[in-house]
Amino acid sequence: MSELTFTRTPATPLPDAEREAILRDPGFADSFTDHMVSIVWDRDTGWHDAEVLPYGPIELDPASSVLHYGQEIFEGLKAYRHPNGEIVAFRPEANARRLNESARRLALPEIPEELFVRAVEELVRADADWVPSGADQSLYIRPFMIAYENFLGVRSAERARFLVIAGPAGSYFPGGVKPVSIWLSGDLARAGRGGTGSAKCGGNYASSLLPTRIAKEHGCQQVLFTDSATDDTIDELGGMNIFLVRADGTLVTPRLNGNILDGVTRRSLIALAKDRGHAVEERDVTVSEWRDGVADGSITEAFACGTAAVITPIGRLVGEAGTIVDFGDRAPGELTMSLREELTGIQFGTVADRHGWVHRIVSAG
Ligand code: COI
């Protein structure tokens, strides 16, 4: 499959001054680079028609099955500009593996991991000028796959399209690394046993939008979902995983129970914390344990993590009945911030990459 040749149709790039204005204050992937990647799959031919082409709208027939049955999956990863000028991606092969896990659950075709990584490399090389160099800025890369066949019967598509787009990104939460408030979703669940909770598919995010809107109405930036069977066991936030930190330095995070995303940032933090000698417990953890632990001082920090959020300290958990947890001026916690510094240091090339996570795409100079 690695012999698949990419055809390249160069875009007319955005004028330098306009691109530089965007890079100075990129928001979170609110603008997109000059190019995109597209690869088509059908059951007879497999993956073919690999292209790097100008970024722009794609034509979809109104009967395209993705529009009706939501057969769609995606990934999120970032490219970083290092001080020596090289451009790297963080663990792209982990995203390739996870996309294929999502593909299996959503009955979409798997894509060879090396083809996924090449597609990311092709786009980053074509649009290297779009990788920002400001503090905490990166190029957010969004590979995704859609069902790409026109019919209205309910079945999995025999034709699919994989695309990669990218946009420069600063902090996911406006205001930078400040503690966020989290809203505990009540009756509105994100996932249930045997569902698609562990797949990165658009439907999971669609179901988080109403609860997130309610969260925002209550002054919170994210929503926390619990297991719909217990209403107490913590799953994850609308778009990121969650960790609690105990006073003895133990990290506690929900186990991969089939409902939650196997986050690349989650995995990386577990490895970094274990390297430092911290115990890490991946297990069921409840809102009651969190609330009682903060009250008796045994839980001292909480944070959200994901590619987009990196590590964002949690300051408060709020529910229908009022504040459940409030770290007050103890947030952000010390371990939260020092793990954040280590992880971003590896990503931005200022801390040694002892795990070999950094994948060089454009060389220095
Ligand atoms: C990510 O962290 O990359 C996510 O997918 C979260 C959100 C931006 C969808």
Condensed summary:
The chain is α+β, with helices and mostly antiparallel strands. It contains eight helices and 18 strands. It is 26% helix and 30% strand.
What does this protein structure show overall?
By secondary structure, the protein is α+β, with helices and mostly antiparallel strands. It has two domains: 7-169, D-amino Acid Aminotransferase, Chain A, domain 1, CATH 3.30.470; 180-340, D-amino Acid Aminotransferase, Chain A, domain 2 (Alpha-Beta Barrel), CATH 3.20.10. It contains eight helices and 18 strands. Strands 1, 2, 3, 4, 5, 6, 7, 8 and 18 form a nine-stranded mixed sheet that branches. Strands 9, 10, 11, 12, 13, 14, 15, 16 and 17 form a nine-stranded mixed sheet that branches. The mean pLDDT is 96.
The secondary-structure element order is EHEEHEEEHHEEEHEEEEHEHEEEHE
Regions with little confidence, pLDDT below 50 for 5+ residues: none
Shape descriptor reads globular
What is the number of beta strands?
18
Identify the quaternary structure here: single chain
Give the helix level as a range of percent: 25-40%
Helical segment count: 8
CATH topology of the largest domain: D-amino Acid Aminotransferase, Chain A, domain 1
Reported CATH architecture of the largest domain: 2-Layer Sandwich
Beta fraction? 25-35%
Classified by CATH, the class of the largest domain is Alpha Beta
The domain tally reads 2
Tell me, rounded to a whole number, the average pLDDT: 96
Sketch the major β-sheet: 9 strands, mixed
- Judged by helices, strands and strand pairing, the structural class is alpha+beta
End-to-end C-alpha gap: 31 Å
Identify the bound ligands: 2-OXO-4-methylpentanoic acid
